[in-house]
Amino acid sequence: MSKAPIKTTGTATQKPARPAKRPGRPKGAATQTLPTADVQLSRCRKCDSTARTKYLRTTETAHTGQLPNGQPYTHIVRRWTTCSDCGQARVDLTHENRV
Ligand SMILES: [Zn+2]
Hints:
This protein is mainly β. Helix content is 0%, strand content 29%. The chain has a domain at 57-96.
């Protein structure tokens, strides 16, 4: 009695559906301390409110320097806005350090 070779149909090596990639730190990756930025909310100089309309215009100037507190910066950014409480217009000036 001779055995006929077994015919295989389909593939048994099909991978099961993987769960969606989870956000955040991968398993086993070390926790690292990343640099943080100190940001102060801009305030209205008339009524001291921090509420504002969305920025109307933004300009940035590439300028390298150091703030009085020692923080280095590479760009000076100006953002035009208006106070939501009293309507006072202002320009928010920020110094950003970009890598
Ligand atoms: Zn105001």
